[in-house]
Amino acid sequence: MRATANDATRRYKIGVLVVAYNAESTLAATLDRIPGDFRAKIDELIICDDASSDATRDVGLQWRSENDIPTTVVRHLKNLGYGGNQKAGYELAAQHGVDIIVLLHGDGQYAPECLPELVAPLERDECDAVFGSRLMVPGSARQGGMPLYKYVGNRILTMVENRLLGSDLTEFHSGYRAYKVAALSQLPLQHNTDGFDFDTQIIVQLLDAGKRIIEVPIPTYYGDEICYVNGVKYARDVIRDVAQYRLSKLGFGTHRWVASTPEYALKDSEGTSHTVILEMLRGRRPGRILDVGCSGGLLAEQMRALGHYVVGLDSIEIPEVRERVDTFVRGDLEEGIPTEVGAGFDVVVAADVIEHVRRPDTLLQQMAQLLTPSGELLVSTPNFAHWYPRFRVATGTFGYDRRGILDETHLRFFTAKTLRTLFTSHGLDITELRHTGLPFDVLSRGDTQLARVARRVDHALVRARPTLFAYQFVVRAKPHRGEMMVAA
Length: 488
Fold this sequence. Notes:
Layout: E1 14-20, H1 27-32, H2 36-39, E2 42-49, H3 56-66, E3 71-75, H4 81-95, E4 100-105, H5 115-123, E5 129-133, H6 140-143, H7 148-165, E6 177-180, H8 181-184, H9 198-208, E7 213-217, H10 231-250, H11 273-281, E8 288-292, H12 298-305, E9 309-314, H13 321-324, E10 327-330, E11 345-351, H14 360-369, E12 371-382, H15 387-394, H16 416-424, E13 428-436, H17 440-443, H18 449-464, H19 466-469, E14 472-479
Parallel strand pairs: 1-2, 1-4, 2-3, 5-7, 8-9, 8-11, 9-10, 11-12
Antiparallel strand pairs: 4-6, 5-6, 12-14, 13-14
Helix pairs in contact: 7-10
């Protein structure tokens, strides 16, 4: 008797996604191997035929008619690729209310007999994903027929990927997996590749999201199934994926399959813009500060620790921001500073903000009008004349990045000259202009000897020629008495 959704022993709706391409000769035999006691737990079997040129779909329909597992057979009108086929299957599983989905290959390369072992940790809420590993048991992969060159390649790639990602998986390249559908729904799968490296990208996304992964040993089987994977291309693609991830986390590139966060990190290493702003504030008595573009309030939290009362303003509300500021106001800077923020501020801080708005001149004027007679503006912005964007332009490789000077959300760029002109032409006197170096807290892991040497060299270059080596400018400015322009 099939268990029902109301059965007290059942908590999750279980689905099995069978990806199949030209699997006419193997599909039915593979499905027949699903253990009898596990069949009663399957709420839906989804067979995705990726536009096969043989009778894979017909075999799937015939198997459905002969078995009592609720089965959906889908045939794509065009080939979506290995990754594209999975994306379509996971989307269908989510639409059908499946809670746990197991990926099973229709060619029989992965043992259906192991389905219970893959699902069990998910049913016990021990993890968000379970990977079948052929390398967990020493020697089993070779004994199961894995060719030596594939075994060596698998081990080397897995070692490199673990090193770059800080993980400790025994195998990255098994296609036998089970997932919580809720965990998959939190990943940007729609931006993943349609190729065979889809499996690598989904591992990276799970690790990046902090999801729990468990591995279970599975047997290795190599039969007469057709392999459609180009090994050299696959190796190149997975290494490229991991490199793209690492670069995206450093701020380089705009790879959509790598998740991003709307919250800006606190730049708290030596000589960074946030550190310089905090240094400038230490010379002031505690007062009222308006933090324009406060993001998650990490900088505001530091300013409050100095005794200041901080009003945070941003167009989005990051979780926990209200715990880090005294007052939070939500408002779109493109529409002007909301009246709810009030006035009479001793300091208005705009840390990495003016480059994000279409009219930075208007924003500067509005911020200046909120100051007390002795108040001042503290503004930081990137230096577009830094050697990095110069190099990108000169070599014809200009493009936007995830963060930094070429952040894809930047609408305006400034050099030292244009920044001075922006302030002075709108009735603001620059009383101090500081230059910061590269953000080594982002570019390096930990405070290593190499990072310390690189930081010292960079700081020396910034002092010698700031127009070329300064990463950011930090401006302290005051309205020129009697000449401050009125904002339109």
